[in-house]
Amino acid sequence: MRVSSTACFFAGRLCGMKVGRRVLVVDDDPGMRALLCRAAEHAGLEAYEAGSLTAALLRAHEVLPIALVTDWDLGDGDGGQLYDLLRDRLGPALPAILLTSRAEELLDSEVAPFLDVLEKPFDLATLLDAFRTLRWRARPKAVSGRALQPVVADILGSSAAEGDG
């Protein structure tokens, strides 16, 4: 079910969300995740974090992000898989940044959907520039939280998604 962008705007306002500024930050390294969240907030984004593909799907269901920043290696999957799953549910124009220490090993087709690819280690100025670009490219998506239920059910089993009314 899709809802209007106006409905999403007012629902987000009622819940205290910065509508149009929610970014999902996914990295299995807690220190890197904290750095990424601080940088996102410094760039004017509201950062929500997750440490794995599964946790990211659950978090995305809660906050309906308008952008994604993800590491490639997530332990239970990769950033490309996560991006595909979220893009299917949140819309094909979901802007995303990929972080990796193995950029030279990835195929062009694996990195092509991403707005930017930052190779670790990267400097803070490059990261902040990427977040600022992401902020301007991201637009609120008119999507119901129910749109992610099939993905969550596939990953965790149907009982996890059924509890959300």
Give the CA-CA distance, first to last residue.
13 Å
List low-pLDDT spans.
1-14
The CATH homologous superfamily corresponds to Response regulator
Biggest beta sheet attributes? 5 strands, parallel
Arithmetic mean pLDDT: 79
Proportion of beta-strand residues: 5-15%
Put the structure in a nutshell.
By secondary structure, this protein is an alpha/beta fold. It has eight helices and five strands; from the N terminus they run H-E-H-E-H-E-H-E-H-E-H-H-H.
Describe the protein's architecture and organization:
- The chain has 165 residues and is an alpha/beta fold.
- The protein has a single domain (5-162), classed as Rossmann fold (3-Layer(aba) Sandwich), CATH 3.40.50.2300.
- It is 47% helix and 15% strand.
- A 5-stranded parallel β-sheet has the order 2-1-3-4-5, sandwiched between helices.
- Helix 5 (108-111) links the parallel strand 4 and strand 5 (116-119).
- Helix 3 (53-63) packs parallel to helix 4.
- The longest helix is centred in the C-terminal third of the chain and has 14 residues, at 124-137.
- The radius of gyration is 15 Å and the shape is globular.
- The two termini are 13 Å apart.
Please name the defining characteristics of this protein.
single chain, Rossmann fold, 15% strand, 47% helix, 165 residues
